[in-house]
Amino acid sequence: MTLLQNLAHWKSVFAAVFLLTALPAAAQAPQPSGPREGVPTVSGYMEVHLNKEQDLPAEADLHRFVLMVGHTFTDRLKFWSEIEVEHAFVEGAEESGEVAIEQAYVDLMLHRRFNLRAGMVLVPVGIVNERHEPPTFHGVERTFVDTVIVPTTWRDTGIGAFGDLGRGFSYRAFVVPGLDATGFTAEEGIKDGRQQGGHADASDPAVTGRLEYRHAGLTAGGSFWTGGSGFGLIRLDIETPTVTVGSLDARYRRGRHELRGQWSMVNIGGAGDLNRALQLQSGNSPNIASRLLGAYGEVATRVSPDAWQHEVVAFGRYELFDTQHKMPDGFLPLEELQRSAVVLGATYFPDPDVAFKFDVSREHNKSEGVRGPWRVNFGVGWWF
Predict the structure, then answer these.
(1) φ and ψ of 103, to 5 deg
(2) How many domains does the chain contain in total?
(3) Closest CA to 58 of 379, 376, 381
(4) What phi, psi does 148 have (nearest 5°)?
(5) How are beta strands 114-122 and 98-111 bridged, if at all?
(6) Is residue 173 in some structural domain?
(7) Interior CA angle at 103 toward 175 and 265, to 5°?
(8) How far apart are alpha carbons 333 and 322 in whole angstroms?
(9) Is 59 contained in some domain?
(10) Is the pLDDT of residue 3 over 90?
(11) What is this structure's pTM?
(12) I need a labelling partner for 102 at 20 to 30 A (CA). Which of 80, 133, 146, 339 fits?
């Protein structure tokens, strides 16, 4: 059985499992909705940053302004959207900001255990990709792992199911278009292979999903993405590259203290042939790895006195983000891209939905000649 036949087989199994889960839903009443029917819901978030990287000038940036709009048609039918402006403005063909639709989907509520979602959806991999509002994570910038290994924000058009399985378990699962392997790089892995819903080639779809468990201050999850990525190389006589992403994460909070961690791995099948094919097109080998690895652990504690109404939280995080973890035969890793970082900082919450942030990070790598930079970051972010 070929690799594509295996993928098609597992997609069929995946669909059958969720259809079987849905069978008892028809006899059950839908869950009541939160917002009143016909009344739009408006929300959003912003973040402003001041960044200073070693040997570079300080940079001030209105990094993101996001407006979220929702609408409840009926108890069974709901809509949600998220429109983002990055870096303050977009002008002509110049390289400046970006306007993007990050979410725009309709939910059909059938049963607590099984509901349908269709539209522009977030890929449910990792922690930050689905919950990236600035007060929900420590540090001015998103983690290196959730930027380089899991390319947050990762979104695409898709259709799928979600529900609450009871006893603390819930799930989300979608079918989405695949990645474009011609955009893969040694430094940022699969990031530039995202199609992000704009005239996306859906000839080689992917399956993505997440199973999550919540109980007594603990949130733990496992997620995946698997699919083809070779439609951009259709004229070249090579095996279709495939991508599989696996991720495990956990968050635990008790009293003043909070722990958070994530492990993510990306496997690129046929990376050797992909490098050679892209070298024929451009003249340079992109040196794409067959395996990328990312992981981090973070500890945070509230250092403000109990008598204060506001909170001050100090945190520390260690990250590994190696985009050259395993190379295909005939290729050597670029050691400056086998990276890690230590991040130390603090967050001040004058309100639970407003965060003033500060951190210092120092990046390391395995190269003896290229030294990783240090960075100092200040930021403020809020949501409403």
Answers:
(1) -145, 145
(2) 1
(3) 376
(4) -95, -45
(5) antiparallel
(6) yes
(7) 55
(8) 10
(9) no
(10) no
(11) 0.88
(12) 339
Residues 283-290 have a mean pLDDT of: 94
Q: Which residue(s) pair with 244 in the sheet?
A: 226, 267
- 8 A C-beta contact, residue 58 and residue 50: yes
The verdict on residue 275 lying in a domain is yes
3-state secondary structure of 158: strand
Cα–Cα distance between 148 and 150 in angstroms, integer?
6
24 pLDDT band, cuts 50/70/90, is very low
Domain that holds residue 298: 3-26+106-383
Look at strands 218-228 and 242-254 and give their pairing.
antiparallel
**Is residue 239's pLDDT more than 90?**
no
Query: Token pair for residue 345?
Result: 């900082």
Best CA proximity match to 360, nearest among 316, 311, 302: 316
Residue 90 domain-assigned (yes or no): no
d(CA 110, CA 198): 29
In the chain, pLDDT over 70 holds for what percent of residues? 88
Q: Is the pLDDT reported for residue 308 higher than 70? A: yes
Q: Give residue 236's pLDDT.
A: 64
* Identity of the amino acid at 71: H
d(C-alpha 326, C-alpha 303), whole Å: 41
List pLDDT tens digits, range 141-154.
999 999 999 999 99
Beta-ladder partners of 98: 86
27 φ/ψ sector (left φ>0, alpha ψ -120 to 50, else beta): alpha
Encoding tokens for residue 201?
A: 């080639």
Q: Which of 308, 210, 340, 316 is nearest to 257 (CA)?
A: 316
CATH code for the domain of 272: 2.40.160.10
Torsion of CA 53, 54, 55, 59, to 10 degrees: 20
Specify the DSSP class assigned to residue 149: I
